[in-house]
Amino acid sequence: MPYLLDSNVLIDADRDYYPLKRVPEFWDWLIHQSEHGVILTPTEMYNEVVVGKGVLVEWLKGNKDTLVLKDEADPVLVRDVVSQGYAPDLTEDEIEKIGNDPFIVAYALACEPHATVVSTEVSRPSARRGNRRLPDVSEQFGVKCINTFKLVQELNFSTGWRAGQEVAEVNQNADLFAAHAAE
Length: 183
Prior knowledge:
The protein is mainly alpha-helical. The relative contact order is 0.15. It has one domain: 3-Layer(aba) Sandwich (Rossmann fold). The longest helix has 22 residues, at 161-182. It is 59% helix and 5% strand. Strand 3, helix 9 (134-140) and strand 4 form a beta-alpha-beta unit.
């Protein structure tokens, strides 16, 4: 089951707690996870970020082929998410306000089992129509929505993740060697 990143996860991580220049291990880990199909971001979320400038934008552009989900959103699912998750008669202002959020929910729904949405948005169950938040709309559709810190916890990120990976590879190689020697 993949994790799908909302654009705010990338923006907030770089700005607030894992700046690319200060914690490159986090960004290397994201790419590693993407190479294995674990963490991806929809094209619509990618496009929200790359309209800007800076280190994050350049990093994203350089890693687009790895990080960005290759599939296109199912228009029927997107329409269902908009009409049932927000309202069937949204105004132009409301549509602009919800942005691309319906796309990430539609992508998650298309995965079997459903993908997990990762967003820094905070639930606000009392919000209505175009003011609804991504965690609440996700929950309505049976899609798990977590924040960046829960993602880090669930996938066990640490700044020493590469060392742990190397130890696991050494142990795996030792087990293979021992099995071969026993034959």
